[in-house]
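To whoever is on call:

I kicked off a structure prediction for a single chain this morning and the downstream step that reads the tokens threw a length-mismatch warning. I double-checked the sequence; it's 368 residues and nothing unusual in it as far as I can see. Pasting both halves so you can look.
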Amino acid sequence: MTAYELHIWGPVAGLPSFDPDCLVALLYLQFSSQTSNHATNYVVIPSSNPLLSPDYRLPFIRDADSGHVIASGIYQVLRHFKSFVYDLDQHLDQPSLGASSTAVASYVNQHLVVLSSYIQRVHVVNYRSLFRPAVARLAPGLPWQYLVPVWLLTAAKDRIAHVHDVDAELDKAINDQKKQKSASGDQFAGINFFFMKPGSQVPKPNQDIPDSIIEQVKKRTAGGATEYTAVIKMLNLATDAYAHLEQQFSKPGHDEDNGNDEERQGNSPSTDDSSSSSSSSSLLYIFGNRASVADLFLIAHLAIESQLDYDVPFLNDLLAARFPILLAYVGRHVSLLSNIGRQREIRFGPVDDKDVYSLRNYVRWKTG
């Protein structure tokens, strides 16, 4: 039997990975392991090194014998799992449910990826207090402890630029200036996060956002008007996105009798029925009592957005105030994420010396 390595970004604050795509891959293996023994053919390697992949992405799957990368990026990884491990969506036997699952997963990747990227990697306070130190601990010394968090921050800014009016030229110019001061021995205050384009207006908060959250954002804003504007935009986006996602739990056909029951899947955490006042809020997953790929994406992103110990947890505050179904949903499953690696179904392996960051891989990336 062929052995495979699943390479991922490493852990942060109780989660087995700080990256939502890597969490999706881990969840797929975890859920599949209850039904298929093929999941045991994979060893998880928290290399935190995308430079090992031909297209510089994590997660990726590598043949343990040949060393060849056979799937890179979450979509290739999921296609591989579907073909060689287990089809997690096979219980969605109605064409409309299969299409709905694909639509929900696409919606999460279009909207929640912006929220996850911002609150974890771009928000000034959260980046400095949680994300940068966590990623630096995963990097093998200098210069990687400095470079890797900056790479991820830059990529996150590019990912959300369409939501916020970023003046990219000004942003780059100021960062270059700061780097020059740092090289000359001046104190380096850290790279810049956002500069708004001239004429950009501070948006009006959505009326469903509690005033208490807005006040907390004002008190904890470290980046001035630029950061305050970005947080309000993220809260507005989150309010619309979370409302849309909560509606998925009460759509016709998304009932508890869909597919097989939870005992046949054997991977659902227990719930307290007395705490659920409606069938939609008591459903374990979006399409009933069995997880689909859409659930994996939603659980992963909500965990990043609400379950980490951020200094400014504005998305968790919003979920707690306005979206109890989503908050209860991620709360039911976050323990599953936290326990991945402690259970025998998912095997973690050590990071080999050849898999850490190296000047050779860095040059290949920069010149490729």
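Update from on-call: the warning came from a stale cache, not from the record. Cleared it. Sanity check on the structure: The first helix runs from residue 20 to 33.
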